[in-house]
Amino acid sequence: MRIAILTNAYPYYPGEQFIEDEIVYWANNPLAKVTLLPAVAAGEPRPIPEGISLNLDMAGDTRAERLWFTLLAMFSAIFRHELGQLRQSRKMGVRTVLRALLHTSKVLGQARRLERYAQANGRIDVAYCYWNETQSYAAVLAKARGSVRKVVSRAHGFDLYEMRRELGYMPLKRQFIRAYDRIYALSRQGRTYLEETYGAPPDKVGISPLGVPLTGTLSRPSPAGSLHVVSVSFCLPVKRLDRIIEALNLFAHQHEQLEIRWTHIGGGPLLDEIRRLAGARLTDIDGVSFEFLGEMPNHAIKKYYLDTPVDVFINTSESEGVPVSIMEAMSAGVPALAPDVGGVSSLVSDECGVLLSQCPGIQEIADAIGRVALEDGRDALRTNARKVIEARFSSARNYADFVSDVLAIESTPG
């Protein structure tokens, strides 16, 4: 069975590190002949398992091609329909119209390249799109033109929640949402959002959580009198990393006897700004230290938990799917605190950490840190964190089931 996995860049950097765990299960399934088709390919690719092919037909375009598809987009039915959607939703404006045009041109260009790939290599049985974005819309167009039999897509966070997009606008999604053979949300909340916000057909929306490998050993707590807090995220406004800094400032003043260390893993456009804020708000507090480790490979983050005592994982984002970064910490026995946004409540609870309110204040976050790290029952939180991953977010079960489900779709009528 010919499977095309459409990614943004994987196996190239940056990002999409979570596919590294999933791709193994595609490689191990004898029914699947898998080719990776990234849209971006720069530098050296990450290693991929034996039996997985890599094709760059979807990657790269010339200035002339971009201009040509922009012209096609201006006169396309897709763009005209999107202008109607913008008028109806009262989001019509220069920036939204330009974004609609840009996304339409990308979809047309990617569809053409996917069709050429199919012409050269054979019809695609299933196009599996890791993101519910322009590549998946292009696959739907290619299906309508006979180059693809079935199209399935995951929907995570940035490609799902409109509030995470500029001006609250998700280009083109409503046009294509009913054309997929299956869309996989990460949680019940994500499935409901797809159905209620975009009109996704309930019989076409499934739930397939991501997963992480279960570590053989667990992280250990810090020695008495010290506390190590870890956060992992791209440095963007939506992550609200300033709240971690302010909460640690408050917590440190309330617990002057503690040696407190904060480690943040991840880069991004706000990294320097967050580093400066940490310097201004934390440097002069006795017993408080912090470090920014920048981008780290997925395997290195997993190893970090096993090699370094970690007491609390903290997430303060205003929008999430079901974060793999939290799963990885909990797999190593690290309790987590995170806001009740997206599908976080399917992962974090008071049994294995603290589920914060949707928009937690500084005092709430500081109190949660103390509850997880200092109160009686913290050992039980560590044990329960691991149990949650074993029960619901093990990659061995979730990815094997997902691959089997996708392959079964190919044999259904339609």
UniProtKB/TrEMBL annotation:
Sample GO molecular function, one term: glycosyltransferase activity
Entries under InterPro entries matching the protein: Glyco_trans_1 (IPR001296), Glyco_trans_4-like_N (IPR028098)
Entry-linked Pfam families: Glyco_transf_4, Glycos_transf_1
SUPFAM superfamilies per record: UDP-Glycosyltransferase/glycogen phosphorylase
Transferase listed as a keyword: yes
Listed GO biological process terms: carbohydrate derivative metabolic process
Domain annotation Glycosyltransferase subfamily 4-like N-terminal: ranges: 102-214
Keyword Glycosyltransferase: yes
Keywords of the record: Glycosyltransferase, Transferase
Residue intervals of the Glycosyl transferase family domain: 227-387
Protein's name according to its UniProt entry: Glycosyltransferase
Taxonomic lineage: Bacteria, Pseudomonadati, Pseudomonadota, Gammaproteobacteria, Lysobacterales
